[in-house]
Specification:
492 residues; alpha/beta; FAD/NAD(P)-binding domain; Enolase-like, domain 1; 3 domains; seven-stranded antiparallel β-sheet; globular
């Protein structure tokens, strides 16, 4: 197998092929690890973790009259670079040892640009101009993606940036406008507002941020933004964004016809990503793009050419590191294994690194209403969870959605608050197993832990909770939704 691309998907695919005892060549034109390590997930999450610590420290010490705690940008970037180096070092050592040990007959690596010559041959263009052509029985495309640009906006990487540039600034910007209020835009708004050194503006085309999530989620995140001084431009259309000297000026319009012009130090475009497919020479192999032409077309990781597969961002599905790895492993198992099942994209667990942290799996309440699925919904506020009280982090809630019948099979869960991502995995497992809430209600949870809130939710559904929703109506909710009509469930 030849793998074109050494990011999370490509690397995972190469390692899975070794499990089958197959000879693998991995081609990477830039740096092994891709956006999963560089200018992407690892770097931004390191910044988020640091910013959360700064905010938590200041929430504590300022309330008792002590001076504000601050980190210099150089200290922040040093920590981020150390995290990236650790991961880079792991990849480098792993690859070197693979090629030095008995597996050297199976794994090899080439630095360069991989381009199709036909459905079995790939030409490798090296930086020094040399070329090399290899033949492979199967080929996996895992070329990743890059930040999407906007027409008529000059991205110089200094004043007008994408996520590829934001980590390379010399200092905190005095002010920053973020174009796009999706997950990436809100994540960076969280990071810079937490550090408290930057006035953040967020341009949102919709009437609320995170419009794909329930309003109780987006409202809590939005409220925290506003308390941190973030200015959210709701229902705003970006008319222009351009450099003015050493600053940036942008103009937005609103549905009522009004306009606003604001001058800031820097701008960040967070409007999605596009796959890196232009230089692959796919036409030489006959590989087709999707009907919309935005990504490579495939059927369960197989392109229209039977021996060529695709995984990760280039497949245009869920652009997450874990999903890219899963797709690549599935593709290899289709090549060399005897699997019968198709890869499922249902019930994928996700984390949004916001304030507070948001975790999700399965359907949310809004989707159930749109699909007119009869459901029961239960919510518990973090203020009722002992671990949250101990941490002094009582903002947030758990919400579990089940079928409106006696089985009460779990359809989805949303968690917002401290340790939210640690709470959803058991629920995700039950969803994948098509199970109900009864097993979760009887499981012995560690105490004190955030996940005890999950157990209390399902106990409420079974009418045997410690706290009664009829008493703590502002903290506990239990209701059914049928035909878009929601009714409180009567509990003793």
């Amino acid at each position: 197998m030849c793998v074109i691309g050494g990011g999370p998907a490509g690397y995972a695919g190469a390692m899975r092929a070794i499990d089958y005892g197959k000879r693998v060549l991995m081609i990477e034109k830039n740096r092994v690890g891709g956006a999963g390590v560089y200018n992407g997930a690892l770097g931004s999450k390191t910044l988020w973790e640091l910013s959360q610590k700064v905010r938590a420290a200041n929430d504590t010490i300022i309330s008792v009259g002590r001076n504000k705690f601050e980190l210099t940008w150089q200290e922040v970037i040093k920590t981020k670079d150390e995290a990236i180096f650790d991961r880079k070092f792991q990849y480098s050592c792993h690859m070197q040892l693979l090629q030095n040990e008995t597996l050297s007959e199976l794994f090899s690596y080439e630095r360069g640009l991989g381009q199709f010559k036909n459905e079995h041959e790939v030409e490798i263009l090296k930086e020094n101009g040399e070329t090399k052509t290899i033949w492979a029985e199967n080929i996996l495309i895992a070329v990743g993606s890059r930040p999407r640009a906007l027409p008529n906006i000059d991205v110089d990487g200094v004043q007008i940036m994408t996520s590829d540039h934001i980590h390379h600034m010399d200092d905190y910007p005095e002010s920053l406008v973020i174009v796009g209020a999706g997950v990436i835009g809100c994540e960076y708004a969280t990071i810079f507002s937490n550090f408290g050194k930057t006035k953040v503006y967020l341009i949102d085309r919709a009437d609320r941020i995170l419009p794909f999530e329930d309003t109780d989620i987006s409202d809590m995140v939005s409220k925290n933004f506003e308390e941190q001084g973030v200015k959210i431009h709701h229902n705003a259309q970006l008319e222009r964004l351009e450099k003015k000297g050493d600053r940036v000026e942008y103009e937005i319009s609103y549905p009522d016809g009004s306009r606003e012009v604001i001058n800031v130090e820097k701008a960040l475009l967070a409007v999605g990503r596009v796959p890196n497919v232009e230089d692959l020479g796919m036409e030489n192999a006959g590989v087709s793009m999707s009907k919309r032409g935005r990504h490579i077309g495939d059927d369960d990781t197989v392109t229209n050419v039977p021996n060529i597969y695709v995984a990760g961002d280039a497949s245009g599905r869920i652009a997450l590191v874990n999903m890219g790895e899963l797709e690549a492993r599935h593709a290899v198992e289709r090549m060399f294994g005897n699997i019968k099942h198709r890869l499922s994209y249902d019930n994928v667990s996700t984390i949004m690194f916001l304030q507070p942290e948001v975790a999700a799996v399965g359907l949310n309440e809004m989707q159930c209403r749109e699909q007119n699925i009869p459901v029961k919904i239960v919510k518990i506020d973090y203020s009722c969870i002992a671990r949250a009280i101990a941490m002094r982090k009582t903002q947030g809630f758990f919400k579990i959605i089940v079928t409106n019948d006696d089985e009460m099979k779990i359809l989805g869960m949303r968690a917002i608050g401290e340790h939210a991502s640690s709470a959803i995995q058991a629920v995700a497992l039950l969803i994948s197993m098509n199970k109900g809430v009864h097993e979760l209600a009887e499981l012995v949870h560690p105490h004190p832990s955030i996940i005890e809130g999950v157990q209390e939710c399902v106990r409420m559904l079974l009418n045997k909770s410690v706290f009664k929703s009829s008493v703590f109506k502002d903290k506990l909710q239990c209701y059914s939704c049928v035909d878009n009509v929601c009714t409180p469930l009567q509990r003793l």
